[in-house]
Amino acid sequence: MAYFWTIVALVVVLALCWRYLGSYMAGVFDGRVHFLRWAERPVYRLLSVDPEAEQPWTRYAGALVVFSGVAILLTYAIQRLQGSLPFNPQHLGAVTPALAWNTAVSFVSNTNWQNYAGETTMSYFTQMTALTVQQFVSAAVGILVAIALVRGFARRGSPTIGNFWVDLTRCVLYVLLPIAFVFGIVFVGEGAVQTLAGPLSIHDFLNGTTQVVARGPVGFMEAIKQLGTNGGGFFNANGAHPFEDPTGLTNFLSYALILSIPVALTYTFGKMVGNRRQGAAILATMALFFGTWLAFTSYAEHQPNPAVAAAHAVAQPQGNMVGKEVRFGPMPTTLYNVSSTQTSTGSVAGANDSLNPMGGFGMLTGMMLGEVSPGGTGSGLYTMLLFAIVTVFIGGLMVGRTPEYLGKKIQAREVKLASFGVLVMPLVVLVLTGIAVSLHAGRAGPGNAGPHAFTEILYAFTSQANNNGSAFAGLSGDTAFYNVLGGLAMLLGRFAVMIPCLALAGTLAAKKPVAESQGTFRTDTPLFVGLLAGVVLIVGGLTFFPAVSLGPIAEQLSKGFF
Amino acid sequence: MAAPTTTPQSSSPAPSVPRGVAQRRSLFDPGILKTAVVGAFAKLSPRDQVKNPVMFVVLVGTVVTFVEAVAHPTLFSWSIAVWLLLTVVFANFAEAMAEGRGRAQADTLRRMRAETEARRLGPDASEERVAASALKKGDLVVCEAGDAIPSDGDIVEGIASVDESAITGESAPVIRESGGDRSAVTGGTKVLSDRIVVRITAERGHTFIDRMISLVEGANRQKTPNEIALTILLAALTIVFLPVVVVLQPFGHYAGILNGTRGTVDIVTLVALLVCLIPTTIGALLSAIGIAGMDRLVQRNVLAMSGRAVEAAGDVQTLLLDKTGTITLGNRMASRFIPLGGASEQDVAEAAQLSSLADETPEGRSVVVLAKEKFGIRERDLHEEHTFVPFSAATRMSGIDVGGRRVRKGAAEAVRNWARALGGNVPDGFDEVVGEVARSGSTPLVVADGPRVLGVIELKDVVKEGIRERFENLRAVGIRTVMITGDNPLTAAAIAQEAGVDDFLAEATPERKMELIRAEQAGGKLVAMMGDGTNDAPALAQADVGVAMNTGTTAAKEAGNMVDLDSNPTKLIDVVEVGKQLLITRGALTTFSIANDVAKYFAIIPALFVATYPQLKALNIMGLHSADSAVLSAVIFNALVIIALIPLALRGVKWRPSGAGAILRRNVLLYGVGGLVVPFVFIKLIDLFLTATGWY
Prior knowledge:
The complex is a heterodimer. Chain A is mostly helical. Helices cover about 65% and strands about 0% of the residues of chain A.
């Protein structure tokens, strides 16, 4: 019953976010909200940017690439130099080059895949200036690309799609910083630690041992970790650590924050293109997947763990408790983990590796659909819009007209860019997994045998190429091989989708809209929602079915039917 | 393949009976079938195949399989190799069929192009006989009764009746005369009477018939924008399925290691999986659909100058239609006699008939006909002395002077003034009746017998039967119809309402037509129009789809991007339908093709890995006999479905005018859901057949 009410409360909170945060963001990106102008101006002066000058998509994309490139270098440099930098009470040395590369790409690409344990690898300085800063700006960059694409649909015959620097500044100042600040205080208030005082050593005189309790600037990082769908936690245990997710309230806030921006952006989209029903249709499609996957995974985790059952060790009335935080149990953990895998957040409240095979299947396939339910900040919306373009193209042909979406004709160039954007992720996942399973270095990774080993590798690349960052665990990822290849997966999964999106924004913005009529294929109806969901499912299913059948499906079937 | 292939012959109400070049050929014309079979093998050359990325991948896969079959000969590998080859051959066959149908039409046309002699006029008006092929643009030639017109041109002098049946199929000769909108003649047609001088406007190789030939043959066919976009999508799918299948080799190998079974993945099965997954069905039929679309237009006696124009026709949102000939029958007809003053209806009819006896205009004839129908007033021989008074623009009336009676009919104003001048009075209600008739969209003609005004003849613009339903259909698919007329706004409004058009442009001039097209286009709409006159040329060029009538001037024909051989303005509606059908066929077959993949996965994936993971047998939900039979069944299905869908590709999917939502729902159900289910059934059946016949 508590689980039910949790979900009801979540839906209510998200509905409010959708309506008000969504509308607010439209105001921010349409330039109608100004109350922080005093803070914007110095930033523009520093960057020597003319806030009135807009950019064509090429320059917008150029700025994005330069900004992200510099961010990778900076994040890499801070990790390598942390030994000589302040706020390092544990005197942690330089991070190894391969791991520093992987981590730099990981945080800049909003993936937050962590091949390290935060408390024993990263200094406070690194956590704050390298990782947390990227949690803000990488989330902002994702939102920007989505907004640029939305502007492509909203504008008529415009050569420009906005100004990257202005959008970035406004996104951080007006959206991310205020929300993260408020909820950072809540997290700290609930007991998430926020200190620079270093770890605490506690002497247990009774047993004569010393326990070291890791601490650090956790609370505020926690807020942006969820809000920006980053997922990179301070501690290795991530959300399962009581200092990260101390109470039921923070647990609830976690998934609410994770889902807030991706959900609200669909409203922003509808408002900016001048038809809220369009945004609602996109949201409905996302919700359809989220609901189905949540129900499926919840059911899977409600089943007893097969290994425990085989050992007749304990009764499992609550379902699979293996790898779960006892404070939460299977259901809230599932809600947390599903929320985070379906939003490319990747934070976890329990170990994915210990999920039942079909629970793991739920996590894995949730990502394989391209992170659109509702996906990461911005990335969820822009990926879904790419799918929508493909859907409109096929569906539009079937009504006997040159397909159009929101009045913009979908022609050769749009189809080229959208199908590239949609198909790059499966391509990266499959090819890199293929390489990993062919090489000794790759085969050395998994900690298990049988199909589960294959799932671990497949999960790692799926998570990274989708910029999710959730770890199945069980895979020794901190090797030169996985660090380098994983970094590549994250880079391609992020920028090989973003750039076609911006190119699309450019061509769409330049187009003049076609008038709507009875003969127009409507994109704000349940029929469209069904079709869009079908296309997402078919693309994901057709590209990943063979791979998944060798992983979780083979594993489940070896234990009998689900 | 129950659902798609049972689509009936023709999908839309085609009012024009195809004739002439536009012969409707049976799908199974033996001549075409024979050449198509030969063509299917001739097209196997890689040079042809590389144009179609999807089928090229199949060809490469076939070669790989044959090599593998030679290296490790098994019944399975040879069966797969042969069926893969057949897949390519079937695709070629589809294209060859479509081309063959076009070529058959082209041959009919080519016969007309037989070498003719022309009588060229020199600058000094001397005649010399030259070969038609030697004519240059601007040359003047003389054609007399019995001569074939050597090339396209405009008549600069004279009038002649011309037999154009070769291109239009219409056996009645048509009149062509210099000046005006009926001056264009087509090379290959025949002069039946009189003498004309023609200025040549197109040289050999560039004439109308030459263009027709290359169009229907599909020679140097340019891909249309939507076709290009679809090809990109298909190529993208093909590209992504390539790694999906290729990585199964290392995946399977690794699974074998993990499992300790060291199972390997069979190359032939992988190729089979790849071919089954890539969208071969639509890939194989795509060009056939395009060629067949052109073919269907030609069957309706419309020639599109490019495939692009046909596609644009499907997108049209505003249709500009001339009132006369399209919406109304060309002529106004007398429909009512309205008596005024003390006269009876019969009086009016009698006087009207009398005044119209010499009136050979269709309006005049219709008065005589109506009088006969209503009151049995027969044509009479006038024994008395009489004089017919012909219509003139100055008097605006016509009539007869017989036995002291002076009967006149004509424009209300003119007849009233004439009667008054003779000392007559205008009866009560005159202005009301005249005004009422005009408001209803008809033309009032007033009849007077000397000073006595008898009444009014209502000349009605008769709206064509069934036109209202056609406009309703168009409205359902979101096309706005605009009636163009030279009438005054009052009359125009009445007819527009009766015909059920959405809007009208009254007192239209070429400039106002142009303005209207520009305004619609500025609102993001695609506009189609039909025209024949030289003054229509700019508007035809400006419209997204401009259909010129074949009877029209050369200027009009060159400005438009389609020519209607029947010169039937209602044709515009057919053109829109063909355009839509073309796109729908492509979309439906793409959906079908992709939806098919699901079943094929369930056939092949268990077969591929069951040696490594026996538990994957559970995925064999069709209960196929063995791994080999499962793969072979999927490949056979994949090949046969191409053949099964050829008729659908050539005829186009069924299209009923309705809103986008209804069309989409129907097609998604039929081709999407159908595409999911159908292969499950047929793969199972093929598997049963293979098992029953002892193949496996």
